[in-house]
Design brief:
single chain, 159 residues, mainly beta, 8-stranded antiparallel beta barrel, 3-stranded mixed beta sheet
Length: 159
Amino acid sequence: MRAFGVATLCLLLAGCFSSNGPVFSEDRGQCPFTTPTLYEETEEPNRFRFETEGHYCKVTGSDGDVTLALFIPIGRERWIVQGDEASPTYMIMRRSGDRLTQYLPRCQDYSASHLRRLGITFDEERRYCTVTEARQIETLFRSARGRMMGAYRRVREER
């Protein structure tokens, strides 16, 4: 399973924001983990190591699976996260002390008129939204909470 399994979650839950290619350029990424940091899911025994790799966060799962993700800061210890898939999906990560929380804003959380004004395309039920520009995601996600999809706690490694 890929770290965070965002694409899978989107398919199962529907309502995610995605794009046909990355909308954030690499230089926008600011990985907030200055040293390798280990987190574990609060509900599952999965662990993920976060570390900086250039502008990306390299996320390594317990199974050794590696994902590169851009963390684009939006303030108050919150980031828009763009996955490294060919057709990326987007989520919000929030850090509070030793906790990291993953939120998945849903297309149906926004009115059709608001989505149209931003130039976002969507299906009739607003289950799938496709963005073409970074500003679209930034505008929606700055005030969004979204559905909490994961909670992680920092693991202090013994030396």
